[in-house]
Every structure is written in C-alpha cells, then in structure tokens.
Amino acid sequence: MKKSAVVAIVAIVAVAAVASSAFLLLSQQRLGVSEVKIGALVPLTGPFAVYGAYTLDGMRFAVDEINSRGGVLGARIVLVEADEKNDAKEAVAIFKRMAELDKVTAVVGTISSGIGAVLTAEAEQAKVPLFLVAAGSHTILTKDSRFTFRTCLPPAPTNGELLANFVRDKGYRKVGVIIASYEWGFAIKEVLDKRLRQIPNVQFQIEETPLGETDFTTVLRKLQPLQPDVMILTGHPPGFPTIAKQAIELGFPSAYYIASVQPPELMLRGVGDIGLDKLVTTTCVNTESAEYRDLAAKFFQKYNKYFDHNAVTGYITVLAIADAVEKTRSTNPVAIADHIRKSEFSRPFYAWPLSYTEWGEIKKPAMRLAVIKRGNPGPLNPGANWVVENLYVSPPVEPYVPAK
Question: Residue 404: inside a domain, yes or no?
Fold first, then answer.
C-alpha cells in the first residue's frame, strides 16, 4: 500500500473518531427529552388574582428567555398553567393532575397560606417540589418537609422581626397595628406584641378585625388617640388599601402604611395618589440593581405592567429550576428538590440567594421595605407617576425553625 493511501486512511479514521467523540459529547449534553414541564399553579380568580397574574407573567417571561437561548440542554421549558381559584380542593386536584398526569418537574405559584398548607402535604406525598411565592404561614413547613420551598415571603415570625427592627432602627415611638382574624394575622400579632415590648419608649396598639371586613372606620377610631407615627398593616393583606385610605382621610399623622408583599399597582389602585410617599410594601427585590432595571424595562415592553416582586419571584424561580435541571441533567422531581435544597442560586436583582435549610426555609432572608414615591419611572413603568424606592434593608435574619 502506498504511503499516501495509508495517510488518507489514517486521516479518515481520525476524522471519524473526532466526529464520534463530538456526537457522544453532544448527546451527553442533552437531556434526552424534548420538554421540561413546570406547573404554574396560581390564583387567577379570587382575592389573590392580581398576585397570581403577576407571578404567571414572571414565569412566562423566564420561559421565553430560556427557550430563546435553546432551552435547557436542548429541551424546551413548557408551563402547565392552571387557576387554583383560591380554593383548596381545586388546588389539590390540579396539583395531583400535574404531578401524576402531566409529570411536571416542579410546581410554582402558591400565594395563600391556606392553599400552601394543603399543597405542602401533596408535595411531600408526590415528591414533587412546590415553591411558595407569598404563603407566609409559619406552620406550613415542618422539620420533616423536603419538597416545599419558600421564595419571596419568609414566615410571619420573620416578617415580624423585620418590622420590629424597622421601628427600632428608625426611632418610631407610636405604632398602630391592625391584623385580620386568621393564621397569618395572629402570627404577626404574636411576634409584634413580643418584640415591640422590648423596644424602649415605644407605645403600640394592636387591633383585630375579621378577614372579610370592608369598613375599618370603627377600629381606626380606636387607634386615633394614639396618633401613630407608623401603621403596620402587614397582618391584614386584603384590607390594606381600604385601611390605609380611610386612615389618611381621617387625618392620621402616620408617615408610612406598611403592607405585606402586595403589588404596588394594586396598593395605589385602592388608595389613590393620596398614598404616594406613604405606602410601603415588603419586598424581595433589589430595585436599585442595574440588572433589575434592565429586566423591568423589557418586562413592561412585553406585558405592559410593572415588574413587581411577585413577577420577579415567578421569573427567578423558573430560572432556578432550569439551573437545577441543567446541573443535575435530570427532570426527576426528587433530584431537582435535592439540588435546590443543597445549593444556592442568586441574582443581583433578588434581595437574597435562594438557599435553604434542610426543611425548605429561606436560609439568608435579608428583607426589604420599599416606599411608593411620586416620581418618573422612565422605561420601567412608562406613563406612571410613581417609583419604588428602598426604605429599609434588614440585615440577614436567622431562618425560622419550626416547632416540630
């Protein structure tokens, strides 16, 4: 055989070997499935419908971004969307369908503590990770929880710590508190009653009303003699806009009215411009980061709405799940839950890293309060006359440890 022929054969074999190696590497980098399914189980009707709509759009925003880059290891992200209607039976039925029939890798979107309480049991039984957006009851997680994770809203005792620290650090002396007669409200009441007593020279008054109350004039009259410097309304999410509006109209001297993780647009819709410079929301977003401002402008262009903390949470949770799929090279819910629980996922626009205790509690919550101020938001929210500005950043709070 001529030398040239031998060289040619060697070259062909080498090319084939390289091609084979490239194909093997490519196949190893692909998931072997065409889709990664994520359940978007959100309330789109009922008292938390606005929260759910923002969360869903945030999830869609992330899915479009990931898929535009080719998906995750060659697989497209697909949302399996459903409205749980703030109904526990409906939520459980849909979760089971998503886990058993749709074969989702994870489920995202729980807002209500009542829904979270029933879904966490389903998540543990089905071994499918469930991500809570704003379900803040401290009884949802136990030390045995392994498939339920909080995201934007730490439990009520942690929120109470933030609020007490705010009062202490800002030097407020008169604090009015209104809570609703349900688990979240009672938990906020318990921690504030304890912590505010520990702050020297602070006077406070806590009033309780039914969850479905619509006229708060009577309870506000009880608080009026205190002349509160600040009103903490975190424990009554549905009543916040009405309470704040009626208090301002009654001439309360309060500098700020503090809500839970309510969408700023929802707060202003209920209170009006008289609430500008006074309304404060608890948030998990670093609105001052350049990355947030860039994303918020793109989000508005796509959905014609503000990129609020619920939308941001839907967005980052999908990113975290996709990252877990890529790192584990698996869509298996158990593998994803294990990775999420043992790793850390962070982005500059989020107030803390998504890192967890063994039972799914936020490990390093550095909570924020943000005030809705009069101003020009520019491309973040064209046409609006308000901006969201950090008012208080808490140092990282110790993660809540369940009693059992």
Answer: no
Maximum C-alpha span of the chain:
107
Please check whether residue 362 is in contact with residue 159, taking contact to mean a CB–CB distance below 8 angstroms. no
CATH number at residue 215: 3.40.50.2300
Q: What is the dihedral of CA 271, 272, 276, 278, to 10 degrees?
A: -20
Instruction: State residue 29's pLDDT score.
Output: 59
The Cα–Cα gap between 62 and 76 comes to 12
Q: Which two tokens stand for residue 46?
A: 């009922």
Contact partners, residue 106, CB within 8 Å, separation at least 6: 38, 39, 128, 129, 130, 131, 321, 333, 336, 337
pLDDT tens for each residue of 55-71? 999 999 999 999 999 99
Q: 128: domain range?
A: 35-153+288-364
Which structure tokens are listed for 22?
Answer: 């490239």
Q: Which two tokens stand for residue 234?
A: 């975190």
Based on the fold, state whether residues 148 and 162 are members of the same structural domain.
no
Nearest Cα neighbor of 192 from 236, 224, 151, 152 is 236
